[in-house]
Specification:
74 residues; alpha+beta; 2 helices; 4 strands
């Protein structure tokens, strides 16, 4: 079994719950993602993922959904 890592992303551009859902769905679609928690008010997403999941892929997926993201901690 692969180890699980946690990455926290700062996400900008979310205005309402629909935005939060779109960011969640975008992150959940990334291969290796196990769990996602998006906090609209903190403008951040916490992602538990397998160790071979590249955090850059998380940022890219959020960008494709129409939002800006950056890794704040790993």
């Amino acid at each position: 079994m692969k180890s699980v890592n946690r990455t926290v992303l700062a996400v900008s551009g979310m205005r309402d719950n629909n935005c939060r859902v779109r960011v969640s769905e975008a992150l959940e679609a990334v291969s290796g993602v196990r769990d996602v928690c998006v906090n609209l008010f903190r403008a951040q997403a916490t992602v538990d993922h397998e160790s071979d999941c590249d955090p850059a892929a998380l940022v890219e997926s959020v960008a494709r959904a129409g939002f800006a993201a950056r890794v704040t901690s790993r």
